[in-house]
Every structure is written in C-alpha cells, then in structure tokens.
Fold this protein.
Amino acid sequence: MSDLQAPNPLTRYDAARRALAEVHRFDELKNLRDKAVAMQAYAKQAKDTALITHATEIRMRAERRAGELLREMAERKERDTGKGNRNPALKSQAATPKLADLGVSKSQSSRWQQLAALDQDRFEAKVGTASKHAYDRMTQKVLRESKIERAKALSNEQPLDKNNLITLVTHTGRQVEYPLPKGKATFNRTNQQVDWAAHTWNPVTGCLHGCRYCYAREMAEMRETYRAAYPVGFTPLFHHERLDAPANTEVPKEARCDPRLKRVFVCSMADLYGKWVPTEWIEKVHASCIANPQWDYLFLTKFPKRYTELQLPSTAWIGTSIDQQSRVKYAEEAFRNTKGVRVKWLSLEPLLAPLQFSDLSMFDWIVIGSQSATVQPDGPVKEFAPPFEWVARIVAQARDGGCKVYLKPNLLGGNPNPQSPGMQLPQEDPEEEIADAAARARREGRAS
Ligand code: SF4
C-alpha cells in the first residue's frame, strides 16, 4: 500500500506534499489537489489548526501547477478550448479532452490559471495569507467551541459532595475545596510528550511564568476533560494529599533493565521553584523524595537559583529550562554552584533563539526540541522549529563539555510529526560556492 492510500490522513498528507514536487501529468495533479481538499476537510473535523494550514498550502500549490498545465495543454492544442483549436494530429474528438473530461469546471480553470499567472513572490504572499486566514478561522472556531463547552459544563455541573471534600490552598493562601481522592495517591504514567521518564507526579500545579507555548496551561485551562482536576485553572495550588505518592507507588521490576521506569517528572504541570511558591511546599516535596530514594526525581525550573538555597534529594535530576538568552547567565551560575545531585540537565524545549553559553560543562544532559502548536486562553500559538544551525552549535558545544544530548523527535517535520514544521536544514549546493567564487574573481579582476 502506498502512503497515498494509507488509512492515516496525516500520512496521506505528508505523501501528497512529497508527490507534488514530482508530479507532471494532469490527472495525477488533479488527484493530489483533490486529496488536499479532503485533507482540509479532515483537518477541520479534527480541529487540527496546524494541519489545516499545511493542507491549504498544498491545495494552492497543486492548483497553481494545474493552472500551468491547463495553459500549456491549450497552447499545445492538447485540450479542446471550444475555439476550434483541436489538434489535427489527434484523430478523434475524444482524444482532445475538454475541461469537463478532465474533471475541471470553467471557474476552477479560470481561477487556477490566474494563480499560475502570478509571479512567484505574489503567489507566495497569497499562500501565506490564505494559510494564515485558514489557521485563524479554525483556531477562532476552536476557541468559540471551547467557550461554549465550558459554559455548558458549568450549567450541568454536579454540586460537590460536601462530605467528601478536602481543602487545598493556593500560593496566596486562598482555600479551595477539592474532591477527596478515592484511593492512595500514586504516580501517573507519562504521555508521549515526555519520553525520558515513565511517571509524573504533581504535588503542586499551576505556574505564573506565562510562557505562551505552555502545553500545561492549555490542559489546565482549555481542555474540558481536565476541568475538575484544575478547579482554579493554572493558579498555583498545593496538593498535600499527593505527598505520599512516592511511598505508595512500586518501582516496576523492569526498571532494572529500563531506567526510564524509575524516573518521575516532578511537577510537570507547574514550576515548583517559581518565586511565588512558598518554601514550605518545596521542603515538603523534597522531604517525600528524600524518604523514598528508590525513585529518580526529575525537576525543571526557570528559577534555578532556588536549587542553591535548599537541601536537594540525592536522587534528583535538577533541570533548568531556557527559552531566552537572558536566562543563560543565571542558569550557568546556579548550576556551577549546585552539587550532590544525580544529574544536572538543561531543557531547550522549545529552542526559540540562537542561545550562546560560556560552556556546557556544568550540565550532564541537554534536551532540545521544537515548539508545538497550542491554544492558549488569549489565542492560538503556532508551532516553531529552530534552524539546524542553532541546534548544531549547541550539540558541538555539548560534545566539548562532555555533556549527553537528547534531540526530541519533534525537531523533524512530516512523519511522525505532521504538526511540526521541522528544522530548517541547510540545503546548500557546492556549485553555488563555485559561482560565488567566479563572481568574486570577476569583480576583483575588474577592480585591479
Ligand atoms: S514555566 Fe513551564 S509550566 Fe510555567 S508557564 Fe512556562 S512552560 Fe508553563
């Protein structure tokens, strides 16, 4: 089965994108264009905002190419335009197809040939505008529907059972009623986004950093299925009832062969070391970790200075997440001054800028990734993949510093990440250099 017949529409889309670059026959091109239209319909149904922009782009490129072919066929008298232009070399009338025989309406033919007549720059601008409009229309629709779902859920909401409630507190001391857990607190299994740890544990939820790419905020505030678990949305909240999870969860036997199985990503839905987090919360989380050294605890913060002020669990993997150059200096300082932990790591996911480090020897491990598309309370945020050079520079520096590197699969576009644009890879041609050198020599020759 070819990719174009694959059951997964995303796979078919990816194959269509590759095939478009190679196709020359009109019927094949028309087939690809029709698949792009189907892909747009699928993306709308799936509310996949990233896919809809790609499908719109494929459709427009296919239609422009179809317009070129229609014009060429008319010029070569290979199609009947109804103006007595049948090719005498083609014996029968049936051998000179009309638009209808090609499955094309008059208005499509006219629109596609208009697209074909645009110069390249104007066409690219049109593609960009159309994709953006399609993307905006879809994300506005998703936001509208999400608001309606929320309103419906609020009106249908069951009153909390007053006899089965516990009281939690936010970072400002506000009390929040929360359903009493049914059983003992244990860890959760991770989703595919976190492929380096098998468990998550969230004794604190919520964060005030306000990163626009935050998938955790999208879950807490935009997804109806998580509403009950986040009664105050992304406001920082202490879950004291979850502190026993490390003691209550058994380390899987298979962890002897697969160390990932004894790694726990702590506070995947928060920044545990944010400036607003009371020290008492952090100390309680650390105490639970220290009492249960059978687990490896992966922490991640944008305030690494707090690591230097606290007693850390010896099985901690302390991490810092850097998304802008101004954080680099503070991270380097904090990590040089922190000792007595299992691993020191750096998360560059998403890598949004060409970051410069003095060196990377203060880290044991670096994770680099792209930004996925997300829908935040104030609107949609598009996906972003860094240029190859930004990644390559950091990898080279990591090698010099003796630091391990983990490149997330979401750096690559297409399958298996149809929602990622993929890194901008260098695709240079040695002939360009030769041409440049020749031009330089000519200029220099003229100057002497
Ligand atoms: S620091 Fe992390 S949890 Fe906080 S807003 Fe940024 S991405 Fe979200």
Remarks:
- The first strand starts at residue 165 and ends at 170.
- Confidence is low (pLDDT under 50) at residues 1-7.
- Residues 207, 209-211, 214, 216-217, 271, 302 surround iron/sulfur cluster (CB under 6 Å).
- The chain has eleven helices and 14 strands.
